[in-house]
Amino acid sequence: AQSVAQPEDQVNVAEGNPLTVKCTYSVSGNPYLFWYVQYPNRGLQFLLKYITGDNLVKGSYGFEAEFNKSQTSFHLKKPSALVSDSALYFCAVRLPQFLNNNAGNMLTFGGGTRLMVKP
Amino acid sequence: DAGVTQSPTHLIKTRGQHVTLRCSPISGHKSVSWYQQVLGQGPQFIFQYYEKEERGRGNFPDRFSARQFPNYSSELNVNALLLGDSALYLCASSLSRIFSGNTIYFGEGSWLTVV
Predict the structure, then answer these.
(1) Residue A117: Cβ-neighbour burial (10 angstroms; 0-12, 13-18, 19+)
(2) CA separation, residue A82 to residues A13, A14, A114, B73, B79 (Å)
(3) What distance lies between CA B13 and its chain's CA centroid?
(4) How far is CA B11 from the centre of its chain?
(5) Per-residue confidence at A95, pLDDT binned at 50, 70, 90?
(6) Which site among A33, A34, A107 would you substitute to test the B interface, given the most B Cβ atoms closer than 10 Å to its Cβ?
(7) How far is Cα B102 from Cα A52, in angstroms, rounded to an integer?
(8) A102: nearest CA in chain B?
(9) CB-CB under 8 Å, B58 with A106
(10) Is B95 on the interface with A (CB under 8 A)?
């Protein structure tokens, strides 16, 4: 079974400082990894994904994430945080199609990390 | 282009009632999935439909059912509602079922409150 862990319920950072939101995963094989952001009372917005290739993936709104296979991690980063980045962030994993045992499009999500950026 | 659209946005039901939630995928997307997000948790996979057939099912009781129509829109039905069914129900679409690297795009969700 696949699982995702986001070890921090909340991350606090001052505006202008770099931010990191952590994610680790447990899955057989080489997974596909995703980050989504959720603003209050809204749905999920796609930020970025890792499929293959360069371990550093760049996404929307200046976010990037680094895939580390040996540490089974996919941490989300941004060099300079904005107050408007304050939201709930979800990491998700999905198995390649030949390994998903008819699980279809199933994404397995972590529990989420609330990012608070203070002015 | 319109994104994933869901209706209704909010609804309140009584225990034991039935609810139908609707979803229209992004134009050109043939795969629709449903997720349940309980307050304070990450979304949980309920169903995936592709070409009008169920292609995946999460760990939800038979009270939950869904279908996909020829235009690729979808309905999620929940019978005999329980208080624990109160959640945000998210619909997601992607280009196809085949390549798991396709990005999955989510709608704004339908907030269901069961009283």
Answers:
(1) buried
(2) 9, 8, 14, 37, 43
(3) 17
(4) 15
(5) confident
(6) A107
(7) 12
(8) B56
(9) yes
(10) no
Which residues of A are less than 8 Å from B45 in CB distance? 103, 106-108
DSSP string, B101-113: TSPPEE---EEEE
Contact flag A105-B55 (C-beta cutoff 8 Å): yes
Number of H helices, E strands in chain A: 0, 12
**Phi, psi at residue A61, to the nearest 5°?**
60, 25
Is B56 in contact with A34 (Cβ distance < 8 A)?
Answer: no
* Contacting residues of A for B53, CB less than 8 Å apart: none
Q: Closest approach of chain A CAs to the CA of B25, in angstroms?
A: 14
Residue B59: Cβ within 10 Å count: 7
What do you get for the CA distance between the two ends of chain A, in Å? 41
Percent of chain B beyond pLDDT 90? 75
Q: Quick: pLDDT tens for A7-51.
A: 999 999 999 999 999 999 998 777 889 999 999 888 999 999 998
Q: How far is CA B64 from CA A26, B19, B31, B59, B60, in A?
A: 28, 10, 18, 10, 7
Of A34, A52, A106, the CB nearest to B56: A106
Backbone φ and ψ for B5, nearest 5 degrees, come out as -115, 140
CB contact under 8 A, B50 and A51: no
